TrEMBL record:
Coiled coil: none annotated. Signal peptide: none annotated. GO terms for molecular function: DNA binding. This is Recombinase RecT. It comes from the Bacteria. GO terms for biological process: DNA metabolic process. Pfam families: RecT. Residues 249-304 are annotated as: Disordered. Residues 260-285 have a biased composition (Acidic residues). The lineage of its organism: Bacteria, Pseudomonadati, Pseudomonadota, Alphaproteobacteria, Hyphomicrobiales.
Length: 304
């Protein structure tokens, strides 16, 4: 009898996975929220695995663990609410912007929340001062051009409005410390990752439950802050997306999205290079060192 073909080996691996995963059905059902039928969740996981042979070849324990985390978050690994991605042979559960927004909206902790990318042919203005505001009119009748910035806005029950804006340069600092900076989600779904990045930064200042904080930390393992600046391959579409385009200048208003007075207080005494390197790490809930200094920034409408 000859050796199995690659297709036959994959088929055997898929059958073995389905059998092993089916034996976890009780644990999966216990982890899922009531509104997601266990059968549906398990069907989505099996579909995701069958559609990506690399998942079958990856560490099986990490695949089961990542699937369980997705169930605990109450999100589907369907590449909309979240995705099963691979790093160094291990599977990682990564919630995506659609899933995060879904969870936040369903939590009842906020009146509304959203995150978007502004492009060079859109009309986009970020205004600071006594009446802070963001104005964005997407271009609907033609190419929108290259990305310029990403922003997130949240409204709380007490009438407060929280805003966060990140330039492409800010977003690129985050991408460059990703262990998958030039492959995977940052290449396949750049806009999704940009929206998620600015939302994560905004979330540091929002009233959220511990469950939501855990959700936002899920893919921290995909980032290596110890090698800041080593991955210098840039995002290609834009060289300098904000030059003379946004009605707000960093020099005049004090660092639009990072490196302002609040961050300067946290890193007082360090040089400009250290401040720039540290900014990317600040975009994640895992670094709480400067959180108290950021609490009051970008909020209006809910305070006297």
């Amino acid at each position: 009898m000859g050796q199995l073909t690659v297709a036959q080996q994959r088929q055997q691996a898929a059958v073995a996975f389905r059998g092993d995963f089916q034996r976890m059905s009780g644990e999966i059902a216990a982890a899922l929220p009531p509104h997601i039928p266990p059968e549906r969740f398990m069907r989505v996981v099996v579909t995701a695995v069958n559609g990506d042979p690399a998942l079958l070849a990856a560490d099986r324990k990490s695949l089961f663990e990542s699937s369980m985390r997705a169930a605990q978050d109450g999100l589907l690994p369907d590449k909309r609410e979240g995705a099963l991605v691979i790093f160094s042979g291990r599977v990682q559960w990564m919630p995506m912007i659609t899933g995060i927004l879904k969870k936040v909206r369903n939590s009842g902790e906020l009146v509304s929340i959203g995150a978007h990318v502004a492009y060079e042919n859109d009309r986009f203005a970020y205004v600071l001062g006594d009446e802070e505001r963001i104005e964005h009119e997407p271009k609907l009748d033609g190419p929108r051009g290259k990305p310029r910035a990403a922003y997130a806005i949240a409204k709380t029950k007490d009438g407060g409005i929280y805003r966060e804006v990140m330039s492409l340069e800010d977003i690129e600092k985050v991408r460059k410390v990703s262990r998958a900076a030039n492959k995977g989600p940052w290449v396949d779904w750049w806009e999704e990752m940009a929206r998620k990045t600015v939302l994560r930064r905004l979330a540091k200042r929002l009233p959220m439950s511990s469950d939501m904080d855990d959700l936002l930390r899920r893919d921290d393992e995909l980032y290596d802050f110890g090698r800041r600046g080593q991955n210098e391959r840039p995002f290609q579409p834009v060289a300098n997306p904000l030059a003379d385009q946004i009605e707000h200048r960093v020099e005049e208003a004090g660092a639009m999205a990072g490196g302002g007075d609040d961050d300067a207080d946290a890193f007082e005494g360090e040089d400009a290079t250290d401040d720039a390197d540290t900014q990317a790490e600040d975009d994640f809930p895992g670094n709480d060192a400067i959180e108290p200094t950021r609490r009051g920034r970008g909020r209006s409408g809910g305070e006297g």
